[in-house]
Amino acid sequence: MAKIVAIVNQKGGVGKTTTCVNLAAALKYLGRRVLLCDFDPQANATSGMGVDKSVSNGVYDVLINGVETRKAIVTTPYGDVLPSSKALAGGGVEMIEMADRQFLLRSALDAVREDYDYIFVDCPPSLELLTLNALCAADSLLVPLQGEYYALEGLSDLMNTVRIVRRNMNPRLQIEGVLLTMFDGRTNLAIQVAQEVKRFFPGKVYATVIPRNIRLSEAPSHGKPITAYDRGCRGAEAYLALANEFLKKNT
Ligand SMILES: Nc1ncnc2c1ncn2[C@@H]1O[C@H](COP(=O)(O)OP(=O)(O)OP(=O)(O)O)[C@@H](O)[C@H]1O
Ligand SMILES: [Mg+2]
């Protein structure tokens, strides 16, 4: 049965989507059965996996219109995708009126849990109802942090939210790991930030760090994860190393 991992940080542009796409694809490359659930109305993970954002059915239709989860899933060479679309932006508001509104994603994913080893949920940059749904559905959360000065900003809000979710809605929620992204290990600042992050999350920070790598930012415009776009580049090596570290922690 799949482990569900939410990729969360309410700060924008820290590498959530890049990590979701490339970790999922790296695990698929290593032979695991993976589903990427794009739960951000920006739908960047959907297009990053090479799936058309204007698909007829997506996660919005599963949650709001009762479409079967399996019918909305698109198979790609890099892993299966439950696509997002712009409609999901309004979904947050429509969900407010629904009973069990924080458990809608959990029910949707429960229906396909047997089909996968890992399900990754790409979250939007906020801690509102969509992210809350992801935290209620997840077994664990993976937090990407940009290795820079303000990396830790907002993390106490995130950890507060996690505590509230654990206490009231999802007691099994764990921290999967904390990932330093766009990291430049040559600067003193980056090294300092890494030390601070390790102090804040003892034992949770991945040894693998993701370097800033131009190929990682190019790949989405080709609709390919990095392992398919340029498997020899540093970005691909880093995400494959992360996938191996992730698997080691999960055996
Ligand atoms: N390691 C990296 N090296 C170079 N560019 C990167 C790297 N990681 C991410 N980027 C680029 O930085 C930008 C933000 O990354 P990404 O979209 O993954 O962040 P995000 O946290 O999902 O953003 P949002 O909060 O808007 O959803 C993107 O243009 C992406 O291509
Ligand atoms: Mg994103």
From TrEMBL:
InterPro entries (UniProt xref): AAA_dom, DNA_Partitioning_ATPase, P-loop_NTPase
Signal peptide limits: none
Domain (AAA) ranges: 2-175
Catalytic activity as recorded in UniProt: ATP + H2O = ADP + phosphate + H(+)
Alphabetized Pfam families for the sequence: AAA_31 (PF13614)
Family membership noted in the UniProt record: Belongs to the ParA family.
Assembly information from the UniProt record: Dimerizes in the presence of ATP but not ADP; ATP-binding is required for double-stranded (ds)DNA-binding. Interacts with DnaA.
Protein name per Swiss-Prot or TrEMBL: Sporulation initiation inhibitor protein Soj
Originating species: Brotocaccenecus cirricatena
